[in-house]
Amino acid sequence: MLSSFAASLTQSVRPVTIKVYLSAIKNLHLELGYVDPTEGAHFLKRVVRGICRCHGVAAVRPRLPITFPILCSLVDTCLAAPAMCPHDKRCLHAAMLAVFFGFFRCGELLEAPTTRGCLTFESGMLHVHLPRSKTDPSGEGTTVLIGPAVPPYCAVRAMLTYLTATASARPGSAVFILANGQRLNHSTFTAHVRTLLSTSGVANWQDYAGHSFRIGAATTAALAGVPDHQIRSAGRWRSDACLRYIRTPPSSARTLASKLSSSSLTCQFEHFGKAWPSFPTVKSNNDEETDDDEADNDEAADDDEADDDETAGGDGDKTDEEESGCREGDGAYEGEVRNNS
User: Fold this and answer.
1) Nearest Cα to 220, choosing from 244, 247, 202?
2) pTM exceeding 0.85
3) How far apart are alpha carbons 29 and 39 in whole angstroms?
4) Which residue, 206, 217, 194, 197, is CA-closest to 109?
5) Antiparallel, parallel or unpaired: β 125-130 and 142-146
6) CATH number at residue 144
7) Which residues pair with 125 in a beta bridge?
8) What digits encode the pLDDT tens for the residues 142-177?
9) What is the mean pLDDT of each run of 10 residues along the chain (341 residues)?
10) Are the C-beta atoms of residues 51 and 12 closer than 8 Å to each other?
11) Residue 274 lies in a domain
12) How many other C-beta atoms lie within 10 A of the C-beta of residue 110?
């Protein structure tokens, strides 16, 4: 029955959505004390795998990363913009730096329930209390710490300057309010960022969005040699899905062969070859199916992480995979790959 249900959905929804529906059916049965209908359903797994192979993955609009060099260009252009009033300059200046250095999803900082009262300064650092976020749906709350940097690219100083200039605002009001009295929401923020990128002469400026700051922060951290676990903690990711945010430039392939054939690695492999003789391995069909199932489960978990990452901010116009941008192979950006050798 589930196989027929999955097959009937192919004309209306994407394969990743079918996986979500089946996962919901599984969870509902378990919560009600029934047996998992997907357990041991090998034919269902084959049907889902065939759907994925036949229909593929829908094209996703690219989301290029705003790395630190691009952020600096954005800030410089913003502060020098002749047509922008001083208030809006301070507002955008603080918003861009805070979103980047805090690894924020835009909705977490720009939308409710985060207010001015959630921001405090202690020991030279900016403390942002998030009453609720995607990884905290129960509303226990979490606090994001942002340290100082070199001006004018310091989020702490930029935020302090903006809040001081708007000290008359109520603590319960939105964090960022433009000169016209409107909240700086996600769509308005993205529009301003694209305008600044276009003015700065950045290529493909239309492929950048608000979430490009979060992607760029993860990419910049990786290039700076920050450990994966620290990147995951800074971005409040629940899994290793944060690794999908790190963009690898095509130029990294130029040095990959030399790294693989380095003398130190060659010596290690020669030693292993003497100690561990190789034997032919025969994999059974059951083993192949098990490996495929594990890969499918891992991919589905990553898709679920990326699909709804903007829902905390109420951004209903996001499509699947849009948070992390594009799938593997679309990582065009300015920078170098992390050195894992």
Assistant:
1) 247
2) no
3) 11
4) 217
5) antiparallel
6) 1.10.443.10
7) 122
8) 999 999 999 999 999 999 999 999 999 998 999 999
9) 89 88 92 91 90 77 89 96 96 97 94 92 95 83 94 96 94 94 95 96 94 93 90 88 77 67 53 47 46 43 41 38 41 38 36
10) no
11) no
12) 25
Give yes or no: residues 8 and 95 share one domain. Answer: no
Residue-level pLDDT at 259: 64
Is 32 found in the same domain as 95? no
Query: Which residues, other chains included, contact 147 with Cβ-Cβ below 8 Å and sequence gap of 6+?
Result: 101, 124, 125, 156
Tokens encoding 228:
């994966």
On whether both 194 and 82 belong to a single domain, the answer is yes
In a shared domain, residues 29 and 170: no
Alpha helices in the chain (DSSP H): 2-8, 15-31, 42-55, 68-80, 86-101, 106-110, 155-165, 186-200, 212-223, 228-234, 253-260, 263-275, 285-307
CA 103 to chain centroid, in Å, comes to 9
The range of the structural domain enclosing residue 247 comes to 61-266+306-341
Claim to verify: residue 26 and residue 106 sit in the same structural domain: no
Residue 287 lies inside a defined structural domain of this protein: no
Closest CA to 75 of 191, 166, 175, 192: 192
Q: How many other CB atoms sit within 10 Å of the CB of residue 258?
A: 9
Domains of the chain: total: 2
pLDDT at 293: 45
Same domain, 233 and 323: yes
Contacts of 160-168 spanning 24+ positions with Cβ under 8 A: 160/121, 160/126, 161/90, 161/93, 161/94, 162/90, 162/91, 162/93, 162/94, 163/94, 163/116, 163/119, 165/87, 165/90, 166/87
Listed as own residue / partner, the contacts of 39-42 with beta carbons closer than 8 Å and 24 or more positions apart are: 41/2, 41/3, 42/289
